[in-house]
Amino acid sequence: MNVLVTGGAGIIGSNFVRLALAERAAWRIVVVDALTYAGNLENLAGIEAGFPGRYRFVKADVADAPAVEKIFAEEKPSLVVHFAAESHVDRSVLGPMDFVRTNVLGTATLLDAARKAWREKPGRFLQVSTDEVYGALGETGAFAEATPIAPSSPYSASKASADMLALAYHRTFGLDAVITRCCNNYGPYQFPEKLIPFMISRFVDGEKLPVYGNGMNVRDWIHVDDHNRGVLLAIEKGRAGEVYNLGARCERKNIDLVRSLLELLLKARGVAAEKLESRIAFVKDRPGHDWRYAIDPSKAERELGFRPEVPFEEGLAKTVQWYVENEKWWRDVQSGAYRDYVAKVYGGQTSE
Ligand code: NAD
Ligand code: TDX
To answer: How far is the CA of 159 from the centre of ligand 2 (A)?
Structure first.
């Protein structure tokens, strides 16, 4: 079975490719990724050798219709797992249009190519989405699939638009589309702009840790492997036209999470405990900062048998260990050296 995985060079996509090739022997995966600033071929290192004949990488922009149609014609995929996106909220505040282009137009381009390619033999389109489409919660409650969408940032509005297009292609054209909406991911290969790897890299560099606002905002956390196991379940057991929320019932206030990180780093790097609190700096709040996210995953648990396996404290400790042991990986990202790897493989054609 040929599977297109878009955005496979990002954190979630690259971990998905590893998991799926290991656990689904009949799959051959074609990664389609534009290698933007967030795409890192080092995240996929070793896969070609580890799974000979079952992996191909194509550098392409999902919003480029001729390129996408060519890939569909060459590979005849029966499944598309669509991870590719501009994913960082702060960047969407600085420059919303890249988000509209990739997340809205890119998703529409893929859906339309799938509609045309699957006229005779239908395939499945898995749209990877986010809890952020539901907007912000107050102190209580959780997002269910029936919660009205009310996105706050250009990022979440562009993801909500993509979800609406996927559902419209299902209703209008009968396209077999399934949507998963997951909470905040953590784990190896996460670009060091996201909270956890950003704080780790700042700590190691002796910099202050900038906590937005009063640090009382709440995020709901899941290990990337648990998210990806949920995506596999939605692919194989999900009903067409349905949305499945994925989460591990693991809410943490940002400030508490930063303090846990500090304690773990203290163990890993041997820094004096009394110096830790002075490392935290409360800074200006993010514009439109959603107060609280919490996912109710009971539909996925009931219908898909979804059961997250990684306890947060254990997953966080392993993740900190990974960043400590793989300092070269994030140093190459900080310095831009990871682009050289792209240049070596693709003759300098990066997409920035
Ligand atoms: P990421 O930023 O780490 O990676 C995104 C990948 O998409 C990169 O490899 C990038 O090169 C690629 N890409 C970007 N624009 C592209 C384009 N126009 N054409 C082809 N490829 C392009 O993102 P991530 O955190 O791995 O997120 C993957 C998906 O999961 C996204 O759709 C995101 O909205 C969703 N999601 C993320 C989280 C999270 O916590 N990170 C939570 C829920 C849902
Ligand atoms: O330096 C920081 N200081 C800080 O207080 C950063 C980078 C973040 N924060 C706060 C903002 C959020 O409340 O930490 C929380 C997490 O921030 P991010 O890592 O930027 O994630 P978030 O905005 O919650 O969005 C993430 O989860 C849902 C992903 O980036 C999205 O792609 C996903 O859809």
So the answer is: 15
Distance 73 CA to ligand 1 centre (A): 24
What residue segments make up the domains of the chain, in order of their start? Answer: 2-187+221-249+289-310+339-346
Give residues (CB < 6 A) around ligand 1: 6-7, 9-13, 33-36, 38-39, 61-63, 83-87, 102, 106, 128, 130, 159, 182, 184-185, 191
Query: Which contacts qualify for 343-349: CB closer than 8 Å, 24 or more apart?
Result: 345/41, 346/35, 346/59, 349/59
Residues 123-182: tens digit of each pLDDT:
999 999 999 999 999 999 999 999 999 999 999 999 999 999 999 999 999 999 999 999
Ligand nearest to the CA of 13: 1
Q: How many other C-beta atoms lie within 10 A of the C-beta of residue 53?
A: 7
Query: Does the domain at residues 2-187+221-249+289-310+339-346 carry the CATH identifier 2.40.10.220?
Result: no
User: Which pTM does this prediction carry?
Assistant: 0.97
Active site members: 131-132, 155
Q: For 194-226, how does the pLDDT look when each residue is reduced to its tens digit (9 = 90+)?
A: 999 999 999 989 899 999 999 999 999 999 999
For residue 34, report the phi and psi dihedrals to the nearest 5 degrees: -85, -5
